[in-house]
């Protein structure tokens, strides 16, 4: 029996989500319920920052996370000393995909 476009889409979305590092990121962001920046995520899931950055980009491209730049360390007297970072949070797409999977498995 051939697959429908909806099934193909779900398979592709699950493929993105189920990669082990991405799954760790999704679980962490679900548990913390607050946006985190790359260094925080990398430290908490014990993965290299570059690897986390790569996987966050894949999750963002698929619509599972979104990022917003925020100040991490405000500038003091010298404005070049301040530090910002991109904070990531889950989108509702994660739960939507998991609900689709759940409905298929029932």
Structure description:
- This protein has 106 residues and is α+β, with helices and mostly antiparallel strands.
- The chain has a single domain (5-105), classed as Winged helix-like DNA-binding domain superfamily/Winged helix DNA-binding domain (Arc Repressor Mutant, subunit A).
- Helix content is 57%, strand content 18%.
- The protein is built from five helices and three strands.
- The chain has helices at residues 5-17, 20-32, 38-45, 49-61, 93-105, and strands spanning 36-37, 65-73, 83-90.
- Strands 1-3-2 form a three-stranded antiparallel beta sheet.
- It is elongated and about 60 Å long.
- The two termini are 19 Å apart.
- The model has no long low-confidence stretch (mean pLDDT 88).
Brief synopsis:
The protein is α+β, with helices and mostly antiparallel strands.
Choose one word for the global shape.
elongated
| Structural Rg | 17 Å
Report the top-level CATH class: Mainly Alpha
What is the helix fraction of residues, given as a range? 55-70%
Superfamily (CATH H level) name: Winged helix-like DNA-binding domain superfamily/Winged helix DNA-binding domain
| Share of residues in strands | 15-25%
**Helix-strand string:** HHEHHEEH
Stretches where pLDDT falls below 50 for ≥5 residues?
none
Number of helices: 5
Mean of residue pLDDT values: 88
Return the CATH architecture. Orthogonal Bundle
Described by strand count, sense and barrel closure, the largest sheet is: 3 strands, antiparallel
* CATH topology (level 3) name: Arc Repressor Mutant, subunit A
Structural class: alpha+beta
Supply the number of structural domains: 1
Strand order of the largest sheet: 1-3-2
According to DSSP, the number of beta strands is 3
Cα(first) to Cα(last) distance is 19 Å
């Amino acid at each position: 029996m051939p697959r429908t476009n909806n099934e193909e889409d779900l398979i592709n979305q699950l493929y993105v989500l189920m990669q082990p590092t991405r799954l760790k990121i999704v679980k962490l962001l679900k548990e913390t319920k607050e946006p985190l920046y790359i260094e925080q995520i990398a430290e908490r899931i014990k993965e290299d920052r570059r690897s986390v950055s790569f996987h966050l980009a894949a999750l963002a491209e698929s619509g599972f996370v979104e990022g917003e730049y925020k100040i991490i360390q405000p500038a003091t007297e010298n404005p070049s000393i301040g530090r910002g970072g991109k904070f990531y949070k889950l989108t509702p797409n994660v739960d939507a995909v998991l609900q689709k999977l759940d409905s298929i498995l029932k």
